[in-house]
Amino acid sequence: MWWVVALLVSCPLLAQQGTVVGVVRDTAGIPLSGVSIRVEPLGVGTVSRPGGEFRLELPAGSYRLEARLLGYEPGRVTVRVEAGKTQRVALRLRQRVISLQEVRVLGRQPVQLPEDTRPSLIAVEPRQVKYRAGAVEDVLRTLQALSGVLAVSDFSSQLVIRGSTPDQNLILIDGFEVFNPYRLYGLVSMYNPETVADIQLLTGGFPAQYGDRLSAVLDVTNRSGDRERPLRAHVAASIVNANTVLEGRLPFWEGSWLVSSRRTYYDLIAGPIVRALKLVEGDVALPNFGDLQLKLTLSPHRQHTVSFLTIANRDNTELTAGPERPRPDSISLFDESYNVLVGATWLWQPRPGVSARLLLSAYSNHGTSSFGGEGGSELVLGREDPTLEEFRRLRDSLQRRGLEVPQLFRVEGAGGFAFRRYGALWEATWEASPRQTLQWGIGVDWIRNELRLRLEIDPRLKALQASNPNIPRLPESYTVSVEYPRVGVYVQDRIRLTSALTLLPGLRWDYFGFLRRGVVSPRFSLSYALWSTTTLRAAWGLYFQSPGYEKLLDRQLFLDFTHPRARGLKPEAASHVVLGIERRFSPEWLLRLEGYSKRFWNLIVQERLPGTVWVTSLTPGEDPRKPESWTPPVPVPGDSLTVIPVNGATGEAYGVELLLQKFFTPELPVYGWVSYSLAWAYRQQNGIRYPFSYDRRHVVNLVLGWRISSRLELNVTWTYGTGFPWTEPLGIKPRIVVEQDSSGNPRARIDTDWRGVSFVVDRGGLENLNRGRLPDYHRLDLRVTTYTTWFGKQWSLYLDVVNLYNRANILAITYRVNPETLAIEPNPIRMLPILPTFGVTVQL
Predict the structure, then answer these.
(1) ω into residue 352 within 30 of 0, thus cis?
(2) SS3 label, residue 376
(3) SS3 content of the chain, % helix, strand, coil (to 5)
(4) Alpha-carbon distance 664 to 102, whole Å?
(5) Cα separation of 156 and 103, whole Å?
(6) pTM for this entry
(7) Which one of 141, 159, 508, 825 has the lowest number of neighbouring Cβ atoms within 10 Å?
(8) What is the reported pLDDT for 108?
């Protein structure tokens, strides 16, 4: 019935309107996407698409179109619209140098077209990345303050989106997929804030163009170099890193080049300090990274644009605990990893309304590591944060008394990995008519994964692991090398039934060579312009994701895909239903309300197999510290966790998100957004339903910027979220060690030390998983930026304070048993304290 109403309402409007179709290019003839097109005096607008094209439906009359894009001078053209007719226009924008005072204006974000059917689309202006308080100038951390997006912790830039895990997000840069977008082990991301041109995050209901992920798509585009000058430089430095950008024009084919380099150097500062304190010995390299990015853009012909992208980075850590360290625990660690991406893109636009592009890429994420050390001092001494001197005194005292001297648990290991992808993607777009646009594509990837692992675990630690069915046994030696194809084909058809109603049906077929299975994913979305400033959007779709060793990095989980039972795995699956409404009250105010529902099935988890659990009982009235007070351990049936992957879980996530956004205007120079999310997320295994690890019921984000004057700017970010689920202890129980007798049969005993029975915390099984909650999270970040001119150059200086009021947010809670009272003592692990940083940027 509502379809009929929509048609009746829209048809009279259609008869009174005309169409303006245009294209925006720079002076070299290269199409420009993301250009804001504003219609005066109506005050409405749109943005140009990837081919520089745009379309407007306007009432009959005469209008002036104004095109604006950061880094270009505004372009203007006058057009006369006639009812029922199409008028074509062309705009040319000239590139210009941007002052540091200008780039901080964050308000003119792209306006999503009413005929853009994609719900859950968040477009972030690149300069918000640089100036948002507490984001450390990082793309992923900036996105963590948006609706539907959660941070794993203060120490990670991973994205948790609408009840999904980070590995279920598709991460792209210039259209190329990357497996590992993180630097410094997740602390920051690969994206350089000085070179990013466009950031789009689809948090749900994304179209058939994207595949092999269940949750979301992050599509980031790097900008091309400056075509107006032969050389331009930009240098930024803070107390933790330096960032240099060089760019300019090429003398042929209207080309440009851009080179950027980043390097952290706090390891160079902190390294000598920790050596002086004798916390480490020998050569030391605290966690550090360096990266290099190169982009070339060429336009050999008006119809052809070619670009080349190269990204290479190295993460490194190397340290050994010194003999004068404060704690008895020790560690020796060497870790080195690389990310290398080489890609080429050819864009062909033979005529208006027709375009095609070819993407070729090679990507590698590889590294090696070795580690060793001793730990468990808190278990041995029975107190929090024991010192090395305390441990030495205890050892000497027990030796004098002729008692067994406790030893720390020792672990050593080494490993390496190489995740490689070689890919080709062909996409084409054809505007069959003013109201129908077809898009199709085919992508082929060849994926090669190599993994090797060697572990040497203390026999006592092995025995403890064997006695705990919730700890899977890791293989002591593991080597695998697999390679397989991955193919994706899609087609989608954008149909404007009326001036108000647009449909986007799509169909995708994927072949996952790892599973030797093909899947079909139907997708559908629509948009309906209730009024010129109000748009309703809805989407439904099926989504599939293949397993792979390259995806385990985000999950921090080991699975043995070589096990025979893994051959029957199915791809993980999800369905999305999204409904939202968006209203733009004026050019500076935007309100969006959106609801979603997601269902998951065939989720891959570690298999639980029937096994044996050893239990013992306390004799009534006896002292629990004495071994003889307990009955001999006996085996009972129980579940044991393994590393075998199975499709053993389902899930659901649903919620409502509200966003109010204020864009910058000279009349009211305050900008930013406030968002609220109400969400639920659950998983189900073995018939037991439990909260998802990142189920956060309420989230509030307040992100504000205030241009106080031409020389001063203030940015504030405040985040509040209810606590993540947590598994609380049920009680304590004797630590049971399982060993083998001379015949190879298991033999269990109660573990003891010089104090008597050793106890462990009992956290139960699935029935107790995530039944508790961590304390609520909230944090206030502040950034103050000042702008000035020195020596004829433009400078900006900033002070950024993370966690301004020093909130003790809790990452996790560890528990130990007090050997004197047998009480369970919690030990909260805190996240970032108050952390001030400062930096400077100069434009040469």
Answers:
(1) no
(2) coil
(3) 10, 60, 30
(4) 12
(5) 27
(6) 0.84
(7) 825
(8) 43
